[in-house]
Amino acid sequence: MDHVDSHLAHQASQENVSFFTPLNLVLICAVLYTTYALMHSSPPPSLPRDTPSTVFRTYNPHTLLPFNGEEGRPVYLAVRGRVFDVSPGRNFYGPGGPYSNFAGRDASRGLACGSFDEDMLTKDLNAPLDKLEGLDEEQMDALQGWEERFLEKYNVVGKLVSMQDYEAQKA
C-alpha cells in the first residue's frame, strides 16, 4: 500500500509541474504584458486645435504697418505684393529678431539685396510701391528664392497695394 501511495504522490507532483509548460509560460507573459500596457498606456494624442481662419485682404503700407508682432499682434511682411503671415517665425521676424525691421513692411528690396538695414525700407508710406528697379539678375534670383521659401512655409494673407491704388479700390 505504501508503494501505491508513493506512486500516487509522485504522479500528483508531476501534474503540478506540468502547469509550467512552455505554452502556459507564454500565455502568462502575454496576460502580464497586456495588463501592464493597459495600466500604463499613454493618453490619446490630442488633436490640433483649429487655427483661426484668416481673411485674405488688401493692405496698403499704412494698414500693414501694425502687423509687426508687438503687443501680441501677428507678424506680417510683404514680398513682391504678397502679404505673408510669418508669425510662426516670430523669433526671426518679430520684435527683437534679426529680420524684425521687415515686420509690417514690404521686405522685397532688403531680401533681394541681402541687407537688413533700415534704408532698404520705403520711407514714404504714401509713395508708390518699390518697383525693384536697379536690381540685377542675381538679386532678383535671390528675391525669388525668398519668395518661394515663404510660399512653402507661410500663409499668404493678402496683397499689398500702394496708397493710391488702395484709395481707388475704395471709391
Automatic annotation (TrEMBL):
SMART domains: Cyt-b5. One of its GO terms (cellular component) is endoplasmic reticulum. Residues 59-161 form the Cytochrome b5 heme-binding domain. The keyword Endoplasmic reticulum applies. It is found in: Endoplasmic reticulum. It holds the Pfam family Cyt-b5. It comes from the Eukaryota. Keywords: Endoplasmic reticulum, Heme, Iron, Membrane, Metal-binding, Transmembrane, Transmembrane helix. Coiled coil: none annotated. The chain crosses the membrane at residues 20-39. SUPFAM superfamilies: Cytochrome b5-like heme/steroid binding domain. One of its GO terms (molecular function) is heme binding. InterPro entries: Cyt_B5-like_heme/steroid-bd, Cyt_B5-like_heme/steroid_sf, MAPR/NEUFC/NENF-like. Belongs to the cytochrome b5 family. MAPR subfamily. This is Damage response protein 1. It comes from Fusarium culmorum.
